Amino acid sequence: MRWPNNAWLVWLPGLVFVAALAVQGLVLWFENQSRIEQLDTEVEVSAHQAGLRMQTWVNDRLMIGTFLISRVENRYSEPAEYVEDARELLDALGGVQAVNWADAGGRITIVYPTIGNEAALGKNLSEHPSAAVRETLRQAIETRRPIRTPATVELLQGGRGFAAYFPAETGSGELLGFINVVFRVSDVVENCLDERFRENFRSAIVTEAGQEVYASVPGESASRWKRAQSVDVLLLGRSWTLIIAATRLADGLFSGLTAPRAVASLGVAFLLALLTFSMLRQGERSRQSERDLVQFASSVHEVFWLASPDFSRIYYISPAYESLWGQDLDEKIYNEPNWWLDSVIPDDRERLESSYRKLLEGGFRENALPLHRIRRSDGSIRWIEARVYPIHNPAGELIRVAGVDEDVTARVEADRERENLMG
Length: 423
Prior knowledge:
single chain, 6-stranded antiparallel beta sheet, 46% helix, 22% strand
């Protein structure tokens, strides 16, 4: 397929339009990458802050068990004394499901607060339905050290949570019982991750065994979250992993493309394409005018030329120069601005130069130069009639001089012959 000569007037503006849109797309991509990096940093910082807040919050409340153990042997002769201390501690800290007392056999004999924990009263932890609870209690008895369940379990009060056991001993090492501190996972999340955090981030908690014990979006696995961050939370010797991800994702290329911006981008691309088309069209017209001029100049016998006002530079000489002057029209002519004077007969040269200076000084009110003779390269003489025309810029300054040289030898000779016949 052969393209028309001016096909580029169509495809080049189209290419500019596409390129302008591509630049806009590249800007959007860089902006989106910046938003992704910013969001990743925000998620990472928020994950560490949330993990530290959760770890501090839970560990502060586990200190309740440590405090109560220190007072078991000497203070708690009556259940009411234990309840009084437990109430003061929970009033100060709060967020704990229960602070219970279990005897050395694991039977819960005191629950606080009573409301919401009635179902646990009288139950034996060594007979708990959860194997994790039974195993944790056994380890607490053997090691006589505080320990918590490794994963969330079904609580006796209902719902899921975890529990810590603090063995209480006499000075002689006799086991008196256990302080049993119970947490609901939902309470931990609600107290550690505020409403604004839960609006901006999805969160999940995974145990050491890989059990997902909490998910802010039920039924949605945290392993499928994009650009998630995780942090370990150490709680009484056991570790949880807190995973968070932003609820809003910035990984969409056009997430920053609003309707006004899209319209503006298309408008800019269209204007650039239109400007390109206009410039190309104007250039094509100028080239066509130049081609027309060259074609016209080639078809006439007069010599057309264009030069600087002082003739220090020649811009154009028509092909008729070759037949009139008898010389090839090559670069040498353009590099020798005085070609037109060098060929003038010496008797006419001074008169011709003087006349051109007067025209130049007078602002070209007249445009005819005196009739003069030139010597061709073969030695023959030709009579030349020349006219010059000024060319000004928009400010009115003279920037070019155009001229037309015509061979009038035949007319001059005819006039002389007629004069001789009449004389």
